[in-house]
Amino acid sequence: MKNKEVLIEFIRYIFVGGTAFVVDIMTLYLFKTKVFLELGDMGIYISTALGFFVGLIFNYVLSLTFVFKSAKEERKGRNVFSFLLFSLIGIIGLLLTEAGMYVGVDFFNINYLLTKIIVAVIVLIWNYAARKVLIFT
Fold it and tell me: Is it the case that residue 5 has pLDDT exceeding 60?
């Protein structure tokens, strides 16, 4: 039964992560094409960070209310320390994302949106595992 609950929780996390990813990538796209158009590659990295932070807040709220059953039942994760830890895990995810964007865009000349999708899958797994173990256990 426990494995089934974890699987359902992970599916909810994928849904929330996917929705947060859409928020993230739309923010990235809008800032890169409308605000930081003249900055070239630097605009990609700034826009990536902005998208990350918008997605992080979205993800945090939905993780508390929809994903992690223990957070809803026991009010886990609803304090400043938990938010800071949630954010720290996310910042590590951002560093992984930025490194992946750099490698994909600058070394392999892959389109920045395709690179973002590839990197997002890796970072999704990191974020879920770290948040589950460190915050919502």
Answer: yes
Check: CB of residue 41 under 8 Å from CB of residue 106: yes
Report the 3 state secondary structure along 89-135.
HHHHHHHHHHHHHHHHHHHCCCCHHHHHHHHHHHHHHHHHHHHHHHC
DSSP code of 36?
S
The Cβ-side half-sphere exposure at 92, using a 13 Å CA radius, reads: 14
Confidence class of residue 1 from pLDDT cuts 50, 70 and 90? low
User: What burial class does residue 34 get, using C-beta atoms within 10 Å of its C-beta: 0-12 exposed, 13-18 middle, 19+ buried?
Assistant: exposed
In tens, the pLDDT along 70-106 reads 655 556 666 778 888 888 998 898 899 889 999 999 9
Residue 107: CB atoms within 10 A of its CB come to 8
DSSP letters of 66-88?
II-HHHHHH-TT-SHHHHHHHHH
d(CA 5, CA 1): 6
CA 15 – CA 67 distance, rounded (Å): 9
Q: How far apart are alpha carbons 128 and 68 in whole angstroms?
A: 10
What the block records as the tokens of 104 is 């994909």
